[in-house]
Amino acid sequence: MLNELYHFATPWAKATKRQINVNRMLGVAANALYPIYCAWSPLPKQRTTQGERMVVSLTTFPLRIGKVHLTIQSILRQSRPADRILLWLSKEEFPEEAQLPANLLRLKEKGLDIRFCDNIRSFKKVFYTAQEFENDVIVTADDDALYPENWLEGLWDTHEKYPGCVCCYRAHEITFEGGRVAPYQEWYGLSPDKKGPSEALFPVGVGGVLYPAGYFSGIEFDSGKIMKLCPTADDMWLKIVGAQKRIPAVKVSTNSKEWFTIRNSQRQCLMSVNTAGRMRNDEALQNLMEYYHVTAEMLGGTSTEQKGKG
After folding, report:
1. Could you tell me which residues come within 8 angstroms of residue 249 by beta carbon, excluding any fewer than 6 positions away?
2. Which CDD domains match (predicted)?
3. What is the rounded CA–CA span in Å between residue 271 and residue 201?
């Protein structure tokens, strides 16, 4: 059902003002129709896959718990199913599983695995999954997006073509000045007309990101240290994890569409916190590069000539 709506959407990086307005109207339509569709259309039976396992992992918080079931419904209705779907919740925010919304608990019968953990903010969506399933393919998802039915299929097909890469729908392109990483706001937002693979591509979590098996092997999992270095910049930490191993990123398509956001889900954009708050993206990246001994070269290059690659 969502595939049909996304068919009429235009990639935001290339959209005109009129097309952006059409995208927004499609998002309104999706928000109105998808809950009805889910209520009347049974979820598919759980299917098993052969070969590598794919684990989808996400988290949420109290302001979004009432509607996260819609995101999970969209993940359960994929043409290429996930082998596991994990929802990580803070045990401080959700002390009793029985008090969770009934429409969320019902999805456990369809394969949803609800786990409880310490509250390490947005890192919950990957931190614990990466340790338990490091030998599997891991896909991170946001908790307020409506994913098209071919979302995982697109990531998986790209993974099969580029098995050693991080695969994503959205990515910025890191730029450089004088042999150093340029300020975050000077990067090429959404990297228009760039696909990769490239070490300079910076995956953006909201679109969905696939990490190949072994991506997190040998990584230090110290939540206290991470929260000091970059408490709100999980995308930064995830990029640095791969930079240590010189793992490039590649996009599913050159210019991807932006997924519809669930309305009234109380979106709290960490990007605005990072760029204007006490812990900026630039500060977080500098902290991480220093701690993990990552150089600009390991992030894609040291000169402006690197901008055109990918």
Report:
1. 165, 166, 167, 168, 171, 196, 197, 198, 199, 201, 202, 203, 242
2. Glyco_tranf_GTA_type
3. 17
How many domains is the chain built from? 1
Q: Which of 96, 254, 98, 107 is nearest to 170 (CA)?
A: 254
Which CATH number do you get for residue 72?
3.90.550.10
Choose the weakest-confidence range: 41-50, 56-65, 172-181: 41-50
Using CA atoms, how far apart are residues 100 and 88, in angstroms rounded to an integer? 13
- Tokens matching residue 95: 């002390």
With tokens 């000091």, the residue in question is 228
| pLDDT one-digit tens code per residue, 287-300 | 999 999 999 999 99
Predicted TM-score (pTM) of the model is 0.94
Taking the CA of residue 194 as centre, how many other CA atoms within 13 Å lie in the half-sphere pointing to its CB?
Answer: 27
Is 90 exceeded by the pLDDT of residue 277?
no
